């Protein structure tokens, strides 16, 4: 009976982690796997509970900070909401084909997928553009006139 309980708890915590991506439920799942192993080894419920609590706490204290540090952006500018780039200028790094998308570099190195606001327009590599809006994680851009670009 304990085997089913620990397997279900491990699975539920893992699925919950996949849905929330909070790096919190993952460690309950790891603790449940340890308790499951103890149950399969024939250990009593007390040993299983101690194993669950110890493995959960230890993994939260040791693994969570390491995982969060590994996923941290570090010295980069950090995450920005897509709307935060509206009005910024950039340079086309990958040609934007008519009706298609390319890549632009915004500011000092943020790379965004971009589409031309004018769907039939091709924007060549190296062209300066301005972000007019975003569509999800895609920047909608238009070409900046050379005189206008020199004024900014």
Keywords:
single chain; 152 residues; alpha+beta; OB fold (Dihydrolipoamide Acetyltransferase, E2P); 2 domains; five-stranded mixed beta barrel; 5 strands; 45% helix; 21% strand; rod-shaped
Strand content: 15-25%
> What is the CA-CA span between the terminal residues?
70 Å
Mean pLDDT: 85
Give the class from helix and strand content and strand pairing.
Answer: alpha+beta
Summed up, the domain count is 2
Q: What are the low-pLDDT stretches, counting only 5+ consecutive residues below 50?
A: 73-79
As laid out across the biggest beta sheet, the strand order is 1-2-3-5-4
Q: Give the strand tally.
A: 5
- Tell me the overall shape: rod-shaped
| Secondary structure tally, helices | 4
Please summarize the sheet with the most strands: 5 strands, mixed, barrel
What radius of gyration results from the CA coordinates?
25 Å
Helix-residue proportion: 40-55%
Q: What order do the SSEs take from the amino end to the carboxyl end, as H and E?
A: HHHEEEEEH
